[in-house]
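Raw record, unedited: Crossover junction endodeoxyribonuclease RuvC
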Amino acid sequence: MAIILGIDPGSQKTGFGIISTLNGKNSYITSGVIRLPKGALPERLRIIAESVAELVELHGPTELSVEQVFLAKSADAALKLGQARGAAIVPCVIRGLDVSEYSARQIKQSVVGTGAADKAQVQHMVKALLKLPGAPQEDAADALAAALCHAHTRDGLVRVAGATAIRRGRMR
């Protein structure tokens, strides 16, 4: 069984979602949004890092799936997004999680079936795939979608390679 932490990074709010996967079956553990205060970026980055570290300690994920930086509205926005990603990734790497990165298009393709899906479609499919009673918040749904994308990708690699499992990035 693998426990996958999905992160949808942002400098104003960062979504997270945690699922477990066993024999191709994915189960919801938790999700939410780390809401960041207005103010200096270093303080917001500290909050992201501490919050992600707390999630890792509490739920014990073994793998991290994070959305890659995309070309944002401006260079400044892209830099802030990159720093938020780094703040979320570092506590995971320190605790030994394997890190996988996917583009927003890959995540949407994996969960919805089209890389051009909108947020409402992602929310709907995450709700359906994880059998949730209601649609998660947008950023939490995006994070859960990142975790599901990783689960689908790793399951596909295992089937293609004929392996029985993946451990620390290697097929067995």
